[in-house]
Structure formats: C-alpha cells, structure tokens
Amino acid sequence: MGNLLLSSCPGKKVRLTGPVRGRGAICRDLGLDLQRFRQIGIGAIVCCLDDEELSFLGAPWESYEREADSLGLDVIRLPMAEGFAPTSVETADAAITSLVSDYTLQGVHVLVHCRGGVGRAGLIACIWMLKLGLVWEAPRQAPFFMQKHLYKTLCALVDTIRMRRSLKAIETAEQVHFLARYIEYL
Q1: What is the residue-averaged pLDDT of the chain?
Q2: How many angstroms separate the CA atoms of 182 and 63, rounded?
C-alpha cells in the first residue's frame, strides 16, 4: 500500500525581500523539489492550488507541469481557495476514490500540497484516511448515536492530522464543516 505525504508548495518563493513578522525568506527550486519527491518514491502529486496561486508562489503551472512530466510524476489538480474546501463532497470523493484505487492501493506513494502543507493538504489527508477506513467510529442507528458517531470521527480525524502534521492542520471552520459533510456522505 502506498503512503500519503504532505508538503508545502514545491518551488515556493515567499518573503524574498526580508522577514515578515519574524518569518524568513523561502526560496525553493521547483525542479529540485520535484526530483527529491521522485527520489523518495513519490509517484503522484495532488496539487490543491490554482494557477494564480502557483504563479504567486513562484511555481507557475506551465513550469510545474513540464517538470513533473519530465520526472514521470502524475499530477492531480484539486484546487481550492486558501482556508476553504473542495467545491462539493462528490467532487472530492471522486478524486479520493481515484487516488486510492489508482495509486495508494497499487503501492504508489502520493504527496499532497497546498501553500504550506497544513490546511488544504491536511483536509485531503483527512478524507484519504476516511476513505481507507483508517479513522472511523462505527455508527449506530438511532439519530443520537449518528451525531455522536459524526462528532467522534471528526475529532479523531482532526486529532490525527494535527498530531502527525501540525497543530495548525485543518485551519478553518469551513474545513471542519466540509469534513462533517464528507463523513455524512460516506
């Protein structure tokens, strides 16, 4: 079974003119980052950024696509605005179903990234864990138990991603709400 890894945007370039609020410059090389991903066994990348945000971060889609293609890396685009979630549960489920069947269950490692690799990438990791049944509270039939199941599963997901990636993972109420809707959908 393939693993799922989270990362900030490959090739990311921010704060190049100096520190902002104590945070220093980041000047990564897109080609080197993607080569490193390939060297550690990554076969596919889920990119949660749109073309505009990729360009803003110094990794324009044309360059990104060309570099990934030259290394044999598949790129799955699932763009969403910062702090938000996919546009629909069905869209996210279709993408994750494909990701799990075409890559994870075939032993291919997948890397998910957004800008910092915490919020949107963490959200994708949560629905990946749900889809694989890695985090799940078994539901009972009565409505009270269904709500309790949803709450316990949601807490387990957020706790797991925060323990494994960052205490800041799942950054917004919108992302929590999306996870709740996805749990109900499944």
Answers
A1: 89
A2: 33
Q: What does the block give as tokens for 61?
A: 């889609």
Examine the pLDDT at 123 and tell me if it is beyond 70: yes
In this structure, how many other beta carbons lie within 10 angstroms of the beta carbon of residue 49? 25
Q: CA 48, CA 54: separation in Å to the nearest integer? A: 10
Domain topology for 4-134: Protein-Tyrosine Phosphatase; Chain A (3.90.190)
Closest CA to 30 of 57, 3, 1: 57
Model pLDDT for residues 90-100, shown as the tens digit of each residue: 999 999 999 99
Instruction: List CB contacts of 63: < 8 A, sequence separation 6 or more.
Output: 11, 30
What residue segments make up the domains of the chain, in order of their start? 4-134
pTM of the model: 0.88
Find tokens 């596919």 and name the residue. Answer: 44
